[in-house]
What we know:
The protein is α/β, with parallel strands linked by helices. It contains twelve helices and 13 strands. Helix 5 crosses helix 10 and helix 8 crosses helix 11. The longest helix has 18 residues.
Amino acid sequence: MRILLTADPELPVPPKLYGGIERIVDLLVTGLQTRGNTVGLVAHPDSTSKVTQFFPWPGKRSQNKFDALQNTMTLGSAVKKFQPDIIHSFSRILYLLPLLPSSLPKVMSYQRDPSHRTTRWGTKLAKGSLTFTGCSDYICSIGRTAGGVWHTIHNCVELEKYTFQPQVAPDAPLVFLGRVEQIKGAHNAIAIAKKTGRSLIIAGNHATTGEAGQYWQQQILPHLGKDGIEYVGPVNDAQKNDLLGQAAAMIVPIEWEEPFGIVFAEALACGTPVISCPRGALPEIVRQGIDGYLINSIDEAVVAVNQLLNIDRYQCRQRAEKHFSASVILDQYEKLYHNLLF
């Protein structure tokens, strides 16, 4: 098959540090080509994924109208040059606009809440040539209310990048990994760590201005360097592997409807239990009492931390291997492509 992939224009594929969508696109590029497919990519100019043909976006701002116009024209040109059997978009559905009426099969993948308006008109204009995927049942349930055919294909991790750690030290820390912002619940992780007397390592980027910067200054910074609370900044893949592997649990007590969250699957790949909240896609990732705990309050989290020894870290790794590995997700995308083409 000749498959043309697109990614959002803001970040290169693969990303240098963070960028969940770009990471998934890079895994698809590598995996699909290994399986004998020919892959083209339309993405940020600094992308380094090795593809048969690469087409850089001229505009790097998804929300800018002029950039959107340029990128829409670029995608049309890429289709003419690459002649794909199928287009798989992880970027904006707007870029597909001139191509929607054509019979060329198109897959639009959502890693965030889909817009009802754009999903509805996309389905109408495509007349059966457009299929949607969501990174979780949660995302697909939102999309289906606007119409169209939806398939859940979860995000995945490269298992070879994550070392399974069957056991950790008795005084192993809790780890918070992700953007340090209100919705991710870093302040809740601090409160839980203090109540349980456990050390906490916080890793990830944070804002310095605006409301998010104020959150960092007021709710996180005053606690650092005290009571075993430590901030180590952003981490790359190797550092992430070490950090998660040494953790008693990854604790990210979210305050929003998480579309998926690749970091949760990355923790499981290390054998590390997850403590989070039953919101968004989390119930699809974490089996209560098996891969970790989904909690609704600080007090419930304290109980969960004290019950971590009941979690079999091997079961956590198995969960990642069976449901969130790159090979499993590649199988699902390839099956979808074949169903659309043959």
